[in-house]
Amino acid sequence: MIIDLTHIKDEEEISLAHEYDPKHEELEFVDYRYTTGITLEGTALRQNDSVSVTGVIKWTCVITCSRCVKEFNSSVDEHFDFSYDVYDKKQIDITNDVREQVIFLHEQQYLCRPDCKGLCPTCGNNLNTGQCTCSHNEIRENKFSQLKEILHDKKKEK
User: Fewer CB within 10 Å, N or C, the chain?
Assistant: First the structure.
C-alpha cells in the first residue's frame, strides 16, 4: 500500500483501508492457507517529518497441526504500529512492513489444541481419537524399557 504524502497536512490524520492478496505477497505455505485476503484498517498521522501508521490487520486461514496433521481454522486480528521518516518524501510504501508483520505473527509450530497427542510413529494413528493397537504402544508406556534391557545385557557381559 502506497501512502501519498502530498495530500496529508502536518498534524492531519487520514483513514487507511487495503486488502493484500497472500499469494501475490508470497505468504502462502503448504501448512498455512489463507481463506480470506489480509485486510488492513488504520490511520496515518503526519507530524512534521514523520508519519505514524497504526491499525489492525486481519485474516482467516486453514492451518495444518504440526503434531496430528489435522486441518483447523484460525483467525488473526492484530494491532500494528509503524513509524516512518518522511523528510523530502512524496510517498511511502508500507507493503513490506505489513508483510513482515504477517510473517512475524506466524507461529513456529501450529497445534490444533494445546494438548494434541499427535500421531503414533509406528502406525500413524491419530492419538487424539484413541489409542492404537500396534506394538509401539507397549514401548511407549515404558519409554526406558529398551535402555533398561541394554544396561541389563551389558551387566551380564561383565
Answer: C
